């Protein structure tokens, strides 16, 4: 069965063995009902997808394969699927014989009838002749300049036919793969001399990528100079500081002064640019010229920039290896077999209790699972906030306090990275992971992949296809892509206008400092704008203010939104991106879609951060881990919208795309109660003390954060939240309940004290009575006269 590329792309969920949401029968019935109104190719594609999904669910993913051979798109169907397709199509054609066209076109019928048997009982049609047999190119991102050690490692692992994409930093590599601009990224994770590269550990958690291969790269430093240069004339060596330290003995023995630069391959680029007279050559350190300076870099960098390698392997230690990980969007665990040596990398957290690490490692050692590495790293702010949220939810649902974690998570938590020498799909590993998850509140498998520079699965097939297609052709050695489409969006400087320049507008202009920002306000904000390098316009000059803007951000309080829009010349908002930053989104979304022209793009957002706010209450401009919720309500210029959003993404805000209705359902009540509580906490109630508890400090932070917002903002949360009055009543009831409990407790204690006092008086009276009785009983009895006389007389 053959189809066009666009039609075959509809089978993407089926390729991943994911059934349709409502199941194949419903999908099939819908297509049979509506097929008269849809193109035959689409109906046939969905029909095949439905049948394939049924077989995949019954026979398992291993029975379903896709391949692209000789430039055509083809599907290897499970056993029995083709006969079912043919029978359904024939019955459909018979039932619809009175219609001018059937569900299957004649060309498609001829393709199915000419199918030939394939392996496993499946069938495949004979591919029609195509004009091109070029396989799909593979783009692999790496950090550094062209010719860097990362690129050389990439060539060793994947061969010369993949397209290398140099990126300026590690995070841009992850972002390129996550945005599907690149297929893979090759990232260094540890060096035998320098240790782990901690930034990449943290980025693996931030981006949802999977490890698909590893490669141990032998680092061999080369001394690169301009062609024909005498080695004795070298006075300076420029390179990355780590490379210079690894060649320290070699440089000292020859009297060469090391000078650190930003990159190894970049140093070679500087010398090459200086020889050509380019501007980048002027970036060389002071005193360095191509006639007295050498670069320490890879031999690939020398070939790339036309430099001569004077000596190779000048490092002091020949055991210098760097371990690289190949990261992709889909894993390859299902392609590993028993004979393939493999690894599984995972990350988890543990409670702060005695023996926690020992118990977690026992999950693997008791099952004879070998471990090759373990390392701990401090937890990122975003993950720490997630664990705090999870911990709070757990304790809100469970009444007991005998949990594996205390109610308060410590300020510092640690992650453990572990490599085991087994596949994730092995039964023993599965049991060990289940056991580990019982002890940990966060456990994630980073990938199962072949060890020792092996390739399996789609990446191996794609590389092999490229090698076969380019067999016998001379290698250019220059398959690189210098720029990605997103680079233009990130480098694009937008003209942004802020309508309203209050506290939040001022704070927002600082976050948008890379763009050209102007503001307008009913009050004179020229001084504040000048401090932030923002161009100020008075309120009467609205027409000139809107002239030439790309983005218009409305930062007025929510209760003034409609009035502000009525005062604007809406015709001037055509072909502009209009952004609202209100704490609620449904009302602004309704107003903007109703009042703005259809040519205006609309972006509803809620930046859940404020002036002076940062992770853990620290002040600063970093947005690491703080949520930025948005909905693309009506976007025609996606490049402009993405460029605007990328500003906050690069600041490491947590970008959350969410419908306005869902946002308000989740956030409205929580935001209102938070601001209400903060406004109830007057500063007179929270005096400054030399010592304070964590709870008191949190109340002070809440009062400060909410106190920075205007009352109009708070009133908007009240007015446009249907549940606000109910929440106020609930707060009153809770306060009254607390007052009643306090009064009852006070009355109880007073009554108890009074009762104790009365009982004490009774007890004292009884004690006095008993003492009197004792005194009477112990007094001597009086003696009579007769008795005395008798006692005086002697006996006869």
Structure write-up:
The longest helix is centred in the last third of the chain and has 55 residues, at 724-778. The model is unreliable at 1-38, 53-80, 92-132, 397-407 and 614-620 (pLDDT under 50). By secondary structure, the chain is an alpha/beta fold. The strands form six sheets. An eight-stranded mixed beta sheet has the order 22-21-20-23-24-25-26-27, with helices on both faces. Strands 5, 6, 7, 8, 9 and 15 form a six-stranded mixed beta sheet that branches. The protein has a five-stranded mixed beta sheet with strand order 12-11-13-10-14. The chain has 29 helices and 27 strands. It is 43% helix and 19% strand. Helix 22 packs parallel to helix 23. A hairpin with a 3-residue loop joins strand 7 (184-191) and strand 8.
Sheet-strand content, in percent, reads 15-25%
Coarse structural class: alpha/beta
Low-confidence stretches: 1-38, 53-80, 92-132, 397-407, 614-620
Trace the largest sheet across and list its strands.
22-21-20-23-24-25-26-27
Mind summarizing the main beta sheet?
8 strands, mixed
- Secondary structure: number of strands: 27
* Proportion in helices: 40-55%
Write the layout of secondary structure elements.
Layout: H1 5-8, H2 12-15, H3 24-34, H4 40-59, E1 65-69, E2 72-76, H5 81-95, H6 106-113, E3 115-117, E4 123-125, E5 139-143, H7 149-158, E6 163-167, H8 170-178, E7 184-191, E8 195-196, H9 198-206, E9 210-218, E10 222-225, E11 236-240, H10 241-246, H11 248-253, E12 257-261, H12 264-276, E13 293-297, H13 299-305, E14 308-312, E15 321-328, E16 342-349, H14 356-365, E17 371-378, H15 381-397, E18 414-420, H16 427-439, E19 443-450, H17 457-469, H18 485-491, E20 495-499, H19 503-511, E21 516-521, H20 526-531, E22 535-538, H21 542-546, E23 551-554, H22 561-567, E24 577-580, H23 586-595, E25 601-607, E26 627-634, H24 638-650, E27 654-657, H25 660-680, H26 694-707, H27 711-719, H28 724-778, H29 785-792
Helix pairs in contact: 3-4, 14-16, 18-24, 22-23, 25-26
């Amino acid at each position: 069965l053959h189809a066009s590329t666009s039609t075959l792309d509809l089978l993407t969920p089926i390729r991943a063995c994911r059934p349709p949401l409502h199941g194949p029968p419903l999908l099939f019935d819908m297509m049979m009902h509506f097929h008269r109104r849809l193109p035959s190719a689409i109906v046939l594609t969905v029909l095949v997808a439905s049948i394939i999904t049924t077989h995949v669910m019954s026979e398992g993913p291993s029975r379903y394969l896709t391949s692209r051979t000789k430039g055509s798109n083809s599907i290897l169907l499970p056993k029995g699927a083709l006969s079912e397709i043919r029978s359904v199509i024939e019955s459909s054609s018979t039932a619809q014989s009175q219609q001018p066209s059937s569900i299957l076109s004649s060309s498609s019928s001829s393709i199915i009838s000419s199918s030939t048997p394939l392996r496993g009982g499946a069938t495949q049609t004979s591919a029609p002749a195509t004009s091109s047999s070029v396989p799909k190119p593979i783009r692999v991102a790496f950090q550094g300049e062209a010719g860097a050690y990362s690129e050389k490692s990439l060539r060793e692992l994947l061969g010369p036919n993949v397209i290398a994409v140099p990126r300026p930093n590690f995070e841009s590599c992850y972002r390129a793969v996550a945005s599907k601009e690149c297929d893979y990224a090759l990232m260094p994770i540890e060096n035998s001399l320098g240790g782990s590269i901690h930034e990449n550990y943290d980025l693996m958690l931030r981006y949802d990528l999977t490890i698909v291969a590893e490669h141990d790269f032998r680092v061999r430093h080369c001394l690169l100079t301009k062609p024909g240069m005498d080695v004795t004339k070298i006075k300076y060596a420029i390179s990355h500081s780590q490379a210079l330290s690894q060649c320290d003995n070699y440089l000292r023995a020859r009297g060469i002064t090391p000078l650190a630069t930003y990159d190894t391959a970049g140093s070679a680029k500087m010398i090459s640019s200086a020889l050509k007279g380019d501007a980048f050559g002027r970036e060389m350190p002071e005193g360095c010229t191509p006639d007295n300076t050498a670069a320490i870099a890879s031999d690939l960098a020398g070939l790339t920039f036309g430099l001569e390698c004077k000596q190779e392997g000048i490092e002091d230690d020949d055991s210098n290896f760097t371990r690289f990980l190949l990261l992709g969007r889909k894993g390859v665990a299902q392609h590993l077999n028993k004979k393939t040596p493999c690894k599984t990398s995972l990350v988890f957290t543990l409670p702060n209790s005695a023996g926690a690490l020992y118990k977690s490692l026992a999950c693997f050692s008791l099952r004879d699972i070998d471990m090759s590495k373990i390392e701990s790293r401090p937890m990122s702010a975003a993950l720490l906030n997630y664990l705090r949220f999870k911990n709070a939810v757990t304790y809100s649902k469970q009444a007991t306090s005998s949990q594996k974690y205390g109610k308060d998570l410590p300020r510092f938590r640690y992650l453990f990275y572990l490599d085991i020498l087994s596949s994730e799909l092995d039964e023993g590993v599965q049991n060990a992971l289940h056991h580990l998850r019982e002890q940990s509140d966060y456990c994630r498998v980073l990938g199962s992949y072949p060890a020792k520079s092996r390739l399996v699965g789609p990446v191996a097939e794609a590389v092999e296809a490229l090698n076969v297609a380019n067999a016998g052709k001379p290698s250019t050695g220059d398959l690189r892509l210098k720029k990605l489409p997103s680079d233009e969006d990130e480098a694009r400087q937008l003209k942004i206008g802020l309508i309203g320049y209050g506290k939040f507008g001022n704070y927002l202009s600082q976050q948008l400092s890379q763009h050209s920002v102007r503001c307008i306000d009913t009050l004179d904000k020229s001084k504040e704008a000048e401090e932030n390098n923002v161009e100020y316009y008075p309120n009467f000059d609205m027409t000139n203010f809107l002239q030439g803007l790309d983005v218009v951000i409305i930062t007025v309080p929510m209760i003034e939104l409609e009035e502000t829009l009525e005062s604007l010349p809406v015709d001037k908002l055509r072909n502009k991106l209009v952004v609202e930053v209100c704490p609620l989104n449904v009302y602004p979304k309704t107003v903007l879609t109703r009042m703005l022209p259809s040519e205006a793009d609309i972006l509803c957002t809620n930046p859940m951060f404020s002036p002076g706010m940062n992770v853990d209450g620290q002040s600063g401009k970093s947005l690491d881990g703080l949520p930025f919720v948005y909905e693309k309500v009506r976007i025609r210029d996606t490049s402009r919208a993405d460029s605007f959003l990328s500003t906050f993404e690069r600041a490491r805000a947590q970008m959350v795309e969410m419908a306005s209705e869902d946002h308000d359902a989740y956030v409205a009540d929580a935001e209102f109660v938070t601001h209400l509580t903060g406004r109830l906490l007057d500063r007179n109630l929270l005096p400054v003390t030399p010592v304070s508890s964590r709870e008191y400090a949190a109340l002070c932070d809440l009062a400060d954060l909410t106190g920075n917002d205007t009352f109009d903002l708070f009133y908007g949360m009240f007015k446009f939240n249907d549940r606000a009055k109910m929440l106020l009543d609930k707060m009153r009831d809770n306060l009254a309940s607390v007052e009643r409990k306090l009064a009852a407790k006070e009355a109880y204690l007073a009554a108890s004290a009074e009762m104790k006092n009365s009982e004490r008086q009774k007890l004292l009276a009884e004690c006095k009575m008993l003492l009197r009785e004792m005194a009477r009983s112990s007094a001597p009895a009086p003696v009579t006269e007769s008795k005395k006389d008798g006692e005086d007389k002697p006996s006869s």
